[in-house]
Amino acid sequence: MAHNGKHALITGSSRGIGRGIALKLAERGVRVAINYRKNEAAAKDTLAKVRQAGSDGFTVQADVCRAEDIARMVGRAKQEFGTLDIFVSNARPDVPEFYQGPMSITMGQWDTAMNSQAKAFLLAVREVCPLMGDDGRIIAITYAPGGRTGSWQPWVGMGAAKVAMESLCRYFAVALAKRGITVNAISPGWIEDSVLNTLPDAAQDMIRTWHQGGWTPMGRLGTPADIGNAVSLLCSEEAGWITGQVIAVDGGSSLMDPGLPLEIQRG
């Protein structure tokens, strides 16, 4: 499923899920703009891996919480590439910047969550659309369970922000359909080399054991490459009839019923 000659801008692509997406698209011939906020060394390392995969690109520093940074980032993509075929909104602030429950989260933390997701997506999509042809692909990386549940209390800011971004996907999908531009969201399950790895070791071990024990039917956590594969699929010509959807890429974990013991569900 080659995408030779296409250009992509991926926010937060210096490491983790964003890096997995960048490398998977590079393997398929896409030139990639690698955005980072603070870790320039990681961004350069991702670019080196993109080149090892046979493609090319550039790194660009930008804080997606800042409107002027978004405009500058997209302007750099226009300068380097001329056009854009793929935009992936993946960037997320570091956990301590928003991680508080609903009764204690500060307005600054709330704004950081919202600005980095819904607001950043709104502004970036409006910036990238003039660079896209009639078969552009726009993809948001969300976390749908964070918006449907209330049990992970300190995730309230990010959960609300991700839900808002998913809603924007639907509105943009309708607005851009006549141009043939698709807009979708991917909701990953628990992924190695992601937010998981910022948690205490004991919490990481519990999550891995929980999912490997059956709460993810496929028996493992995901990888950044798994999300990259899903993005690549949505960027294909064959996916041109899929728009406005939130697609779970989670090994089946969203199919499990928390109201039933695992032993009953596995049969």
Summarize model confidence as the mean pLDDT.
94
- Overall CATH architecture: 3-Layer(aba) Sandwich
Number of structural domains = 1
How widely separated are the two ends? 37 Å
**Rg over CA atoms:** 18 Å
The run of helices and strands is EHEHEHEHEHHEHHEH
Biggest sheet architecture: 7 strands, parallel
Overall 3D form: globular
Question: What count of helical segments does DSSP give?
Answer: 9
Structural class by SSE content = alpha/beta
CATH class: Alpha Beta
Strand residue percentage: 5-15%
Stretches with pLDDT under 50, minimum 5 residues: none
What is the count of β-strands? 7
Specify the helix fraction band: 40-55%
The CATH topology assignment is Rossmann fold
Which homologous superfamily in CATH is the superfamily? NAD(P)-binding Rossmann-like Domain
